[in-house]
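Exercise 4. Each item below gives a protein and its sequence. For each, produce the structure-token representation.

Item: DNA-binding transcriptional MerR regulator (Solirubrobacter pauli).
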Amino acid sequence: MTALLSIGELARRTGLPVRTIRFYSDAGVVPEAERSESGYRLYGEDALARLGLVRTLRDLGIDLATIRRVLEREVSVPDVAAAHAAAVGAQIRVLRVQKAVLEAVARNGSDPQEMQRMHKLAQLSDDERKRIVAGFLDEAFDGLDMAPGFAARMRSVSPDLPEDPTPEQVDAWIELAQLVQDPEFKASIRRMSEQHAAAREAGETLAPDAGWQEAAERVSARAGAALAAGVDPASDAAAAIVDEVHPVFPGGLSRAALADRLEVGLDARAERYWQLLAVINGWPPVPTTVPAWTWFVAALRA
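Answer:
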């Protein structure tokens, strides 16, 4: 017959404190075999193996209730490991985001209220982040006959914060979340959407064609250079640029009509929307072009 082990012997052979073994015994994960005549707990050799497994699983953060189920073979070790690995992965993701938030707070010198708001926004799940942007687009397009391809493209682009975001990506997400909840910005995007729907109803071709692309390139190049050089939009030099670029725009719109059409889209926040998405999703940077277009519209009106 195999000799039974006292709790002190178990402690010596496993390196665990007596009080820990007693706790595990009381919890039912390492049951005693019997009691001595003096009432002391005695354990079989299997207690050594059970304690080894309990210690390993506890070190991995698995709770005693689950460990008891493993020891009683209600669940397998691989199943427990897989489930716990998934949970640990989720915890790591949360910790990484928390780390990025703290770095952003330290860098920006945020006050307590700002820190709480940043933390709340950063803690949202992927689905919650996508729902915030989807709700913004729903309001922008509600009841309007938008071109299906355009609406689908807009809805397909959503924030996808990586598992290990940089502080810049966390900053970008927080700014984007605030932006799409800003009533003034939402009203601005609604006006753009209404213009789009009206043009579609009038039978205009809304898909970006070669003519609009060439015109946009010329505005970025010529108006951008003029703006950088400090050229007055009401000057003769600006008029010469308008004479060159205006005819490139398709549709034969007058200068005033073209200015009206372009002015609706001159909201730097709309461009910022795409710039923030690029930072969050790790895309190439989106250049800033609104100032050049603003200059060009002013030159058209002059």
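Check: The chain has a mean pLDDT of 87.
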